[in-house]
Specification:
The chain is α+β, with helices and mostly antiparallel strands. Helices cover 35% and strands 28% of the residues. It has one domain. It has a five-stranded antiparallel sheet with strand order 1-2-3-4-5.
Length: 74
Amino acid sequence: MRSYVNSASGIEGYNFGDAWIHVRFRDGKSYEYRSPPISRHHIEKMKHLADSQDGLNTYINQNRDVYMAGKPVM
């Protein structure tokens, strides 16, 4: 898992593949966002924000459809 170094964020780490992204939050919970059901546009935006180390947590929070579609990762 790659570190998300933005210390002001609620995100600790992430990893992604072609059609998915895993996000680990600072509270220890991890979620997988996958296309489908999430649109490919959202996945690509999330991957870009993750690599830029800025805005991923805000994006997830502002796009409730993305947040609600995330599946917990054990």
